[in-house]
Amino acid sequence: GGALVLGGTGAFGVQLATASLDTVGKVDFDRPLAIPPLAQSTDDPSGARVFDLEIQAGRTRFTDGPATDTWGVNGTFLGPTLRARRGQEIAFAVHNGLDEATSLHWHGMRLPAVMDGGPHQEVAPGETWTPQWTVDQPAATLWYHPHPHGKTAAHLLRGLAGMFIVDDDESEGLNLPQTYGVDDVPMIVQDRKFDGDNQFDDGATLFGALGVIGDHLLVNGTVGPYFDVTTRLVRLRLLNGSAARMYHFGFGDDRPFSLIATDGGLLPEAWETDRLQLSPGERAEIVVAFEPGETVDLRSFPTDIGGVMGRLDGFADKLDVCRFRAAESLADDTEIPAAMGAAPDLDLGAVAEERSFTLGEDAINGNPMAMERIDFGVRVDTVEVWEVVNDNGFLHNFHVHDVQFQVLEVAGEEPPPHLRGWKDTVPLIPGERNRLALRFSEYTDPNVPYMFHCHVLQHEDEGMMGQFVVLGDGEEVGAVAAAAHDH
Ligand code: C2O
Ligand code: CU
User: Which residues form a coiled coil (predicted)?
Assistant: First the structure.
């Protein structure tokens, strides 16, 4: 095909490949979908549930060719699914068996900043990090991934990531599919490019401004996966675990499915659709119904992003994701309840502060990320409204640590149904201006910041990130301890 050239300088003057990578019909679906094991845990004398996580290097065989050098948690690629209940105290021993520093961040979790696993909590090679907190948020599909300063993309692409499922009494009391790996299926969807020796090719950015767009899709590390369906209803916990690619999920026969949960947990009621778009870092739980004996493929369709962006690789592709093969007879004992979770309900009559964030070239509001700069403090238990603006021609999204927020407006309109639940990451399409309402928890430390950033990982790494603290009554913004940053 031809090539487009966007105007401008630097990253924006690169040539953009436009040949679409259409894999539909080219994937064999001959490998069973790997289901990440549930992490083992033990109860320590204080009553905390303790998980041991070993970050390690290894080799993983993805296809018939040679094995690939990879990183994983308690294995060679990705990590176990963590599972904890609301109200439970959990503790981790995170051992870094690599020969460089990394971190593990608990994306979507409300927790003290010092436990957050961001760039201020890097774990040196050979060291063990021991965060501990009490889970206090509704049932949700969260995830964990590395977050070292300037190296998040590289470390995630080597294989560090996993799912983190929070349970609560309310969700377990519903008759939704909830048998892990049987009718409740984690799906960590990622793309990779392999070089001639079957090694990950991180230099393979199809254009310089978004990062790696791979030409192979992996679900839980499986290339070309099939899943054998044994129940009429199946719940899929979809995670866009890619560095840059958007997915626009749907089934090959355009069958409807029900969105039941967004980043922060269950929706008040299911929303029926046949397409669902997820940007990097976002999660969605969907429930889909199968007929006995049928085969249907989950795909990613061209996104509904318009303009030049929407015509690029990674946005215009039609991709096979996973084949579902239904048994001749299907168990049928779950349902989608009429009422599930709670709708966002922040009090907009009492907004304490309004802020505006413009995402442009490698910076937010013109400031590139600096480890020692805390941009602002929010007052605990107050409601703030944040306007987030995409100021250049590229795809961004906006993620905030420690909080689930309410999307008030997308490009001046009421948010679409899939953005009406609790969210921690929201897409920011070129030219858009979105408004969010946020209320931060009681966890405070004026000297240890949380992050907010674009979750297109190359953008985050290049500086599209800032830092804030949550302040108690009468507290002022502190200073980042010098020792926290020696890069
Ligand atoms: Cu998913 Cu700051 O990260
Ligand atoms: Cu971005």
Answer: none
